[in-house]
Amino acid sequence: MKVNVHAVNFTVDGKLVDFIQERMDKLEKYYDKVVSSDVFLKVEKTSDKENKIVEIKVHVPGDDFMVKKQCKTFEEAVEQSAEALERLLVKRKEKIRTHI
């Protein structure tokens, strides 16, 4: 799957990009028609510890799924977003299966 990582107002290191790519590749076992995904990483300037925001947009034929999570670390936010996307993709796959 093609994963585009966009870091807003900072530079992202290679380890984080590899982690995101690896985690997004796992989504294909839940729904194999995923075309690509865009991952937006943002740091909010607040006094809160949970200031890392991850938005993931997944493109599938006929639809797009968008998930946004805010956590202490980017890894945690990516993990939570991926879990939410897993549920969405499984739900979509079951919906398509019932229409066939």
TrEMBL record:
Superkingdom, natural source: Bacteria
Pfam family, one: Ribosomal_S30AE
Listed InterPro entries: RHF-like, RHF/RaiA
CDD domains: RaiA (cd00552)
Gene3D superfamilies xref list: Ribosome hibernation promotion factor-like
NCBIfam families: yfiA
Protein name: Sigma-54 modulation protein
Upper taxonomic lineage: Bacteria, Pseudomonadati, Bacteroidota, Flavobacteriia, Flavobacteriales
